[in-house]
Amino acid sequence: MKELTVHAQSGGSRVLVGDFGGDFSRFVPEDKPAVIITDSNVAGIYAERFPDCPVITTVPGEENKTLGGLEKIYSGLLECGADRSWFILAVGGGIVCDTAGFAASTYMRGIDFGFISTTLLANIDASVGGKNGVNFHGYKNIVGVFSQPRFVVCDVSTLATLRESDYRCGLAEMIKHGAIRDARHFENIEDNMRGLLKRDISTVETLVYESVSIKAEVVAQDERESGLRKTLNFGHTFAHAIEKVCKLAHGQAVSVGMCIASRLSVEMGLLCEDKHQRLKGLIETAGLPVSLHEKASVLADAIAGDKKRHGGEIDFILLEDLGKAVIKPIPIARLQEIIRGFEF
Q: Given this structure, which CATH class describes domain 165-340?
C-alpha cells in the first residue's frame, strides 16, 4: 500500500493506493452512522461486501449525472434519516464519486464523505482533488463545487472487473499527467505499458500512485483552478466537445483531445513534431483513439459552451515539451476558426 495526502486550502484528503481486496467495511467510520452511494453496476458485483448500512443505488451512465439524478440521492438521504452527523461513502467510478461528492457537499450544507474508487479513471482523476459536480443541458460538470473528501481509496484489485474499454480509458488520464507535468512518469508509462495492459497489480499500483502524486501536487498549489490546475485540462476542452457531439467515452475523448491539442502545439511552434508523435504513439499503444471520423468543424460550436471560458476567451492548454504544459488564452472565435480549418 502507498499513501499520500492532498494538502488543499479547504482541507486535507488522505489517498490510499493498494490492493485492498474489495474490503470496503474497513473504511466505514466507527464514530458515526454511514450511508453508501453506489450504482447498480458496482452493487451487482460488490453488494455482498458492503457493510451493514443503508445503500443508495443510482442508475449508471453519463446521462444520469444530472440534477435529476441528484434529487434521487437527496431523497434517499432523507428516507434513511441522514443528518449532519452522518458519513457518505461513495463506492464506484467517476460518475458515482462526482455525484456523491456534490450531494454530500450540499445536503444540509455539507456532510463528511469519502470515496472508494473502483475504476482506473476515477483512481487517477475523478476521485482525487475535490472537484464534484454534475452535467447540465449537455455541458460537462458545469454545476458543481470544490470540496475535499476525507479520504480516497484507490483499490487496484477492483480493476479486474472492468471491461477492457473502460480500463483503457483510465490510461488516457495517466498519460495526460505525464504529458503535462512529469516527463519521467511519461517514460515510466512507455516502459511499463505491457504490464499496465495486463493489469499487473504491482505495475498498476506504482503508476497509479505516481499519477495521483502529480495531481495532488498540482491541487495543493491551486485547488480552485485559478492557474496551475488548469493544466490538468489538457485535451479536455476538445474532449468535452467530442463527448457531446460524437458520444465517445470520456477517456477516448480525452485521448483524441490530447492529440488535437498536441498537434495545435506543433502548429503554433511550441512543440517539436517528434514529441507530438511520441505522445500520439503512446496513446495508440494504450489502445485508444487518436482521431475522429467526423470533421473537426463539428466541434466548433460545442467549444463555446466550455466552462473554462472567461469572457470571450478560453484558457487553452498546450505543450512546450513532454512534461511541460503552458496555458494560452485564445479567443473563442479564433479557436473556432482554427478548428474549422483543422484536419487531424
A: mainly alpha
